[in-house]
User: Fold these one by one.
Assistant:
Number 1:
Amino acid sequence: MNSEKEDLRVRRTRTLLYKAILEIINNHSFESITVKQICEHAMVNRATFYKYFMDKYHLLSEAFRELSSQEVIISKDDLSPRDMFKQGLIFANNHKNLFMQVLSEERDSLRGIIKEELRGGLRGHLAIKHSLPNDSIMLDLLTEAHTGAVINVIFWCLENNIKTETEEIYKVFDNFHL
């Protein structure tokens, strides 16, 4: 019973911190947000924050993963570039402020949050499609090229208010060969 209560408290604390960072980022640049602000918004002690997260980047990464796991499966092993883009664009439009913040930042650690999630799914699809072994440099290159293309086109769509109903863009990903 005690450990079950503790697990609920841990989940509650994490959820409060996830919600805090996602709410604050709607009104402030990520770079300007402090751990103190996050803790005050979540009504969580700063020491408790550091018990679960190394820094605000770690928190944002975990919050993003939690959010994406609830809404979309973007790390599925056999997701095609088209499906990855479609799922990613739906998710990005649902959380436009978050994506605009993360994708417009120049810091690799922020873009890396999204890149890491996309890589897994695309890698599996590309390995099968091109009959490449997992340790192939060609698979690494194809994965990085497709991941970059998906991220950059999603950002372009957000900047230009392009929604998910754009079949023409999806067709580009069907024919995207490197």
Number 2:
Amino acid sequence: MEDLMAPRMLERKFWKNLQERTKRVVLALYEALRSRDVDTVHQILASDLEWWFHGPPSHQYMMRLLTGSEKVGKSSSTGTFEFNPEFIRSFGSIVIAEGCDSSRSISWVHAWTVTDGIITQVREYFNTSLTVTRLGNQESESSDCSSPSSSSSSSSRR
């Protein structure tokens, strides 16, 4: 019986390790964005990153940050947007991150694809009617954001 269980245990261990590695890559990206560490961001993101954006065009904060159109310390009426994930869960090579900016009443979700330690795809959702189901046994998490769905949504691909 032990011989039959060994492959399942190895498979579970493989998937758990993969999920931990992919989650660490995404956490490293958020930390590099927060500290404005351009070199690390370039090392983590594929040069041909596939990017999907779903939400109001005015909420393309990540694109402005990564393309350099939002400068460090830039003074504007809206200020600099900070991506601080409140929830991160990995499913193999896919990592889901949720966050919000309660001062702007903006909720966001990122779905990252990590291949060989490099982020190759991101799907970014802002204030849309997207619903994310949290899997697993978790305690109820509180959040400062409870954002209404936005009827305005557009899709653009980089």
Number 3:
Amino acid sequence: MNPALTAEAAVQLQEGITLTLSRWAALRMAIENEWGGRDSLQKSQQLGDLLFHRLTQSKEQVYIDDIEDMLDEFMLSLNTEIGDGSIEEIAENLMVMREECLEGNFDSIKRLKETNVPSVSYSRQPQPSPFIGFGEDWLD
């Protein structure tokens, strides 16, 4: 059985999970492109709730492999296969946050709050025309 978190630690962990997922580039791409359908954003919010529940309410010991499997299955439900190691990284970060919250240590979550979200743009930038410099008579 998992040890219980204080009320403050539970709030901090929930925020840490939300911040971690919101900064996961692969998940953001899947949501922005609606690879899991129009409700991709709602699905991602449910993932946060499921992870929080698993990390705090599970009657059995939670292992990093359990979290990795949850993340992998979720991303597959968004039609997204991840092979960049980010699932393992996210799972490890969540487990570390949970352990720190159990100790009343919120440093990693505080650092997340203080860190700016990297700006990632998926919009296409206009490309210069390959015909520039040939003159209009070249197009005739």
